[in-house]
Amino acid sequence: MPNQIANDQKMDKNQTEDPTIAKPVIEMLTVANEYCLFFEKAASYKTAEILDYYHKIAPLLYLKGAILPDLPLNNEAHNERYVTEEEWETVFKELREKFGKIDVYYIHDHNFDSVEASLADNMADIYQDMKDFVMLYQKNIQIARQNAIANLSSQYRWRWGPAAIQALGAVHQLLFKEDISPDILKDENWELRTEN
């Protein structure tokens, strides 16, 4: 037992010295890897299974992305991308085929204009960012891990974070369309909340 306590204390000390192996990073790595493994086999799942999985993992991805440490991007030589255009296309096409008519949904852009969005596109983009993170992090060189975290954190703010939330909203509506009242937007209290 004393050896276990000493080992735990040593691990805690190492994690405070190297933010690339801190608990939030390892948790993000675990969730990102699970996401990638699932979507690499998307062709073997039914549409309902994909939607259910995404409904459960997207909030976790978003939360883990929000608590990643803010690390600077270092040496560009250790800043590789791994997912090829062909690999992205494979994931995208499999998802688009699975989703069919439900792939397209609408969001509001920065001008509050309705624009078309795609579940397959969002999920494939998230896959690309997660896979690049996992692959670069697994090089197991401190500078590569740091760049992997810095890239993922940056992409969280402008790319995969918003995509995860938008797609989650669409998936939620698909999964719970029977439970969502069509009058929700006509509710006076709703209008008051959105104006503030």
Number of strands: 2
State the end-to-end distance.
56 Å
* Biggest sheet strand line-up: 1-2
Highest CATH level, the class: Mainly Alpha
Helical amount:
55-70%
Radius of gyration: 20 Å
Contiguous uncertain segments of 5+ residues: 187-196
CATH homologous superfamily (4th level) name: Protein of unknown function DUF5063
Total number of domains: 1
Number of helices: 7
Strand content: 5-15%
> Average pLDDT, to the nearest integer?
87
Series of secondary-structure elements, N-terminal to C-terminal: HHHHEEHHH
| CATH architectural grouping | Up-down Bundle
Task: State the assembly state of the protein chains.
Answer: single chain
Sheet of most strands: 2 strands, antiparallel
Structural class assignment: mainly alpha
Broad shape: globular
CATH fold call? Four Helix Bundle (Hemerythrin (Met), subunit A)
Task: List the keywords.
single chain; mainly alpha; Four Helix Bundle (Hemerythrin (Met), subunit A); two-stranded antiparallel ribbon; 66% helix; disordered C terminus
